[in-house]
Specification:
The chain contains 17 helices and five strands. By secondary structure, the chain is mainly alpha-helical. The chain folds into three domains: 42 residues, no CATH class; 170 residues, Citrate Synthase, domain 1, CATH 1.10.580; 103 residues, Orthogonal Bundle (Cytochrome p450-Terp, domain 2). The structure holds acetyl coenzyme *A.
Length: 438
């Protein structure tokens, strides 16, 4: 369309520029031509935290935060959660299409065949203190995988790249389960490929002395659905870390370790752990109004609420709420759900939350289910990291194939000192300011 352009007048020079608009977006580099003179670097955009900047094009996940829509490769998340297995969704995210029956069968076999980890990794894991946070253990062991598979550096070889993708997806549950058992001082359980992805993970976590572990089918399906819901979420903090680090051609294990690190923060994947701590602290329904007051006074955050993109109910939270009821049929009711429901009810009718469009996000209810299933809070972010690895890898692969790809390297606006002469140590005197790096 001819009128898909933006005309800008630079009031400093009175010059006018016309730049193209593509899918509601202008290219920041098109602004570089806007200069006050030959020495001028050209206009830049300033967007801390990428509030209004698209960092890539992507065909993987569609998210409309105002309408509360989430789709993987065009398929609504609700339909995928109802009808698919996690590995089926993993294939969809990576390949772009749902697998045929044969493709799915082979994919299941391929993933389960690679679930073992090198025995030396177990020794590496043994080096962690008994109370090491499982996310720290997972980040470190995923990074360590890079030393076991030096071929992973061959990023240009698509066959080799695929092999690393399979390795990472296969080994994540094994590493996560070993980190869990190390904490409890329990012997590691080798993977059982016959069980499939989710039930095998449960087997590696909870098998004791029985000859064959049998997962409860309702709990296994609940975990499968939670894995599907967490598999991808377009350009969030950890996915952006995956793309940024991957853009330097670091191998996928080092890159995924960076993404896991980003996920571990309490404002991102670490929020589900914080929600549980918050619900514990609130304790009883009658203490909710006082807690909400603290949030409104800016003293606290209502963890599991709010989202950079969703300004409507997070569709994943809606599905998780249903799953919670199914899980409680088996495990008995986790009383925290009643505090959470009441917290949600009060928050959603309060002007503070309405005005700011703050709704429950995926983390608000997931921890309550995980706890009912027997997971400890420090395990929750790990349960996020296992499925999100698929999304990271799909995004990483898409980034590597992108003809516009370059190493991620943002600009800055320098606000520091202008050039000044070095002062020798003997002439520096004494500062009266506090010694701090803050
Ligand atoms: N509780 C109370 N107030 C909140 C919350 C919250 N959870 N979230 C946002 N607000 C308020 C802010 O204080 C701000 O108010 P103001 O306009 O008066 O200053 C306003 O809502 C806008 O919030 P921002 O911080 O600008 O929103 P942003 O998009 O930067 O942050 C985030 C999004 C980090 C998720 C934030 O909502 C938050 O910290 N939530 C709690 C942590 C959480 O649940 N994280 C999980 C996110 S989902 C995920 O990563 C899987």
């Amino acid at each position: 369309m001819d009128n898909e352009t933006l005309t800008i007048t630079d009031n400093r020079t009175k010059a006018t520029y016309t730049i193209p608009i593509y899918r509601g977006t202008v290219r920041a580099m098109d602004l570089r031509q806007i200069k006050t003179g030959a020495d001028d670097f050209g206009l830049m955009t300033y967007d801390p935290a990428f509030m209004n900047t698209a960092s890539c094009t992507s065909a993987i996940t569609y998210l409309d935060g105002d309408k509360g829509i989430l789709r993987y490769r065009g398929y609504p998340i609700e339909q995928l959660a109802e009808h698919c297995t996690f590995l089926e969704v993993a294939w969809l995210l990576l390949e772009g299409e749902l697998p045929t029956r044969d493709e799915l069968e082979n994919w299941n076999c391929e993933i389960m065949r690679h679930t073992m980890i090198h025995e030396n990794l177990k020794k590496f894991m043994d080096g962690f203190h008994h109370d090491a946070h499982p996310m720290g253990v997972l980040i470190s062991t995923v990074a360590a995988l890079s030393t076991f598979y030096p071929d992973a550096k061959n990023l240009g070889d698509t066959k080799c790249r695929r092999k690393q993708i399979v390795r990472l997806i296969s080994k994540m549950p094994t590493l996560a389960a070993y980190a869990y058992r190390h904490r409890l001082g329990l012997p590691y359980i080798y993977p059982d490929p016959d069980l499939g992805y989710t039930k095998n993970y449960m087997n590696m976590l909870w098998k004791r002395t029985e000859p064959k572990y049998a997962a409860n089918p309702v709990l296994a399906r609940a975990l499968e659905v939670l894995f599907i819901l967490h598999a991808d979420h377009e350009q969030n903090c950890s996915t952006s870390a995956m793309r940024a680090v991957g853009s330097s051609n670091a191998d996928p294990f080092a890159t995924a370790a960076a993404a896991l690190s980003a996920l571990s923060g309490p404002l991102h994947g670490g929020a589900n752990e914080e929600v549980l701590r918050m619900l514990d602290e609130i304790g009883t329904k009658d203490r909710i109004p006082a807690f909400i007051d603290q949030v409104k006074e800016g003293k606290r955050k209502l963890m599991g609420f709010g989202h950079r993109v969703y300004k409507n109910y997070d569709p994943r939270a809606r599905i998780i709420k249903q799953v919670a009821e199914e899980v409680f049929e088996v495990t008995g009711r986790n009383h925290k759900i009643d505090i959470a429901l009441e917290l949600e009810r009060i928050a959603l009718s309060d002007e503070y939350f309405i005005k700011r469009k703050l709704y429950p996000n995926v983390d608000f209810y997931s921890g309550i289910i995980y706890q009912a299933m027997g997971f400890k809070p420090e395990q929750f972010t790990v349960l996020f990291g296992i499925p999100r690895t698929v999304g990271w890898l799909a995004q990483w692969q898409e980034m590597l194939r992108d003809p516009e790809r370059k190493i991620a390297r943002p600009r800055q606006i320098y606000t520091g000192e202008d050039r000044r002469e070095f002062v020798p140590l003997t002439l520096r005197g004494v500062h009266d300011r506090e010694l701090t790096f803050a």
